[in-house]
């Protein structure tokens, strides 16, 4: 009884602090603050493990991991895990991409730095005409979803150099918009009505991209080595839409790649590489907020955040390997129906009052 009274008193004190300062604080009893001014709850270990698992399973699929974390938190746990928790656990899944594509990333970094040095510092302005290079020396997609290159190191270096530039160029838009609209992303954009609508709308976008790619380009779809600056910029602009939960980063960028005429494998692979700078920067930027007791929604402790991130890393690595193999044989249409059903289900739960939109 004394413990219960103490907990109620702690909540009352927290409410007074919130009313007076617009913020909040947490007490040793485990309460904190949500963004809506309500007292937040401490996250349990089961919740942390489940959310880490959900993050790892859904990050690379075109179904929106942030939407799934938001929906899972609302339906099963009654509160929002928060944008900061989402951003930090994404570090685990991006670490999985870094490990899976370690050789590719290292090769791109070395090629970019070396070529920039030669062209800018040494002023060697010659480049290999990749589009005219023999097809036997161009990258070939292997069974595990990776690209292997021919014997000419100059062709390979030029390809990697260009991919490095395309990633840099495509990252600029989301970096600018992410900083400008940070507050809106953390609050209003997490409304479940908006998320459910975006799940359905972008399901139709993915379906349209698959149809357009097959109908217009057909066998003329381009592999990764024929990626252009225009392709990279368009996919970078599409990545900005992923700031809205429910859109899906991989869904938006892969669809943009298909609209540009890339093969499905090339679009998905570049989508993974493109996400690395933005997601890592977002996760590191959100790290202090995630450890702040006054953070929004469910409040996770440091060890819980670490475990959730590790779980997302392990599951995310398996998810990357699976998806790269999947898209070599199947279209993204398989995910369209799932997105529509999930969006309609969330709408039904909102309409019947089972869950709150905020």
Automatic annotation (TrEMBL):
It comes from Nocardia seriolae. GO terms for molecular function: undecaprenyl-diphosphatase activity. This is Undecaprenyl-diphosphatase. It is a multi-pass membrane protein. Keywords: Antibiotic resistance, Cell membrane, Cell shape, Cell wall biogenesis/degradation, Hydrolase, Membrane, Peptidoglycan synthesis, Transmembrane, Transmembrane helix. The chain crosses the membrane at residues 163-181, 193-213, 266-285, 305-324, 336-357. Its main location: membrane. Catalyzes the dephosphorylation of undecaprenyl diphosphate (UPP). Confers resistance to bacitracin.
């Amino acid at each position: 009884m004394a413990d219960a009274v103490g907990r109620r008193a702690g909540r009352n004190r927290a409410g007074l602090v919130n009313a007076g300062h617009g913020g909040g604080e947490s007490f040793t009893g485990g309460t904190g603050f949500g963004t809506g001014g309500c007292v937040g709850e401490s996250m349990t270990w089961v919740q942390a493990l489940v959310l880490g698992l959900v993050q790892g399973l859904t990050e690379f699929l075109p179904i929106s991991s942030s939407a799934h974390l938001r929906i899972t938190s609302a339906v099963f746990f009654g509160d929002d895990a928060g944008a900061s928790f989402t951003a930090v656990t994404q570090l685990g899944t991006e670490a999985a991409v870094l490990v899976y594509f370690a050789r590719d990333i290292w090769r791109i970094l070395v090629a970019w730095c070396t070529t920039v040095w030669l062209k800018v510092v040494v002023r060697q302005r010659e480049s290999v005409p990749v589009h005219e290079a023999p097809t036997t020396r161009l990258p070939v997609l292997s069974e595990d979803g990776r690209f292997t290159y021919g014997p000419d190191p100059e062709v390979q270096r030029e390809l990697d150099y260009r991919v490095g530039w395309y990633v840099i160029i495509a990252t600029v838009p989301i970096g600018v918009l992410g900083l400008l609209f940070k507050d809106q992303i953390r609050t209003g954009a997490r409304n479940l009505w908006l998320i459910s609508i975006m799940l359905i709308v972008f399901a139709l976008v993915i379906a349209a991209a698959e149809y357009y790619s097959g109908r217009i380009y057909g066998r003329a779809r381009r592999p990764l080595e024929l990626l252009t600056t225009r392709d990279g910029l368009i996919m970078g602009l599409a990545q900005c839409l992923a700031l809205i939960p429910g859109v899906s980063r991989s869904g938006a960028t892969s669809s943009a790649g298909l609209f540009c005429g890339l093969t499905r494998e090339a679009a998905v692979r570049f989508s993974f590489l493109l996400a690395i700078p933005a997601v890592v920067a977002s996760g590191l930027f959100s790290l202090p907020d995630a450890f702040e007791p006054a953070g929004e929604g469910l409040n996770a402790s440091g060890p819980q955040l670490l475990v959730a991130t590790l779980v997302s890393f392990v599951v995310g690595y398996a998810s990357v390997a699976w998806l790269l193999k999947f898209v070599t044989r199947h279209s993204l249409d398989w995910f369209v129906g799932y997105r529509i059903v999930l969006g309609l289900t969330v709408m039904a739960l909102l309409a019947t009052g089972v869950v709150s939109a905020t």
